[in-house]
Amino acid sequence: MTAGAGAPVGRLVLLSVVAIPWFAPPEWRVLMLVGALAVFFGLGAISTCSFNSWMRDLIPNDMMGAIFGKRMALGTALGACLSLAAGFGVDFAQRHFG
Predict the structure, then answer these.
(1) Among 25, 70, 83, 87, fewest CB within 10 Å belongs to which?
(2) In this structure, are residues 1 and 24 in contact, taking their beta carbons and an 8 Å threshold?
(3) pLDDT tens-digit map of 26-46
């Protein structure tokens, strides 16, 4: 597997974490959870290293700070909006469904 395939495969492994409580035998659940998360974070570490190296080769030095700063600002804004939406969603579900 190439380093670029690590991120999508890691996301698929993360989806398997969702199924563990329903399909794994009770005595294997913790071990399977730890194993799946280890694979997810291991593949993430590999793909992040390759992504950073690739960006270093593609982005000119004088633009790198601006591009990564903009990327960080957009990611932070998106994360804040999604966290706020999730909070409202949990409050809504508690009020209306129990």
Answers:
(1) 25
(2) no
(3) 999 999 999 999 999 988 888
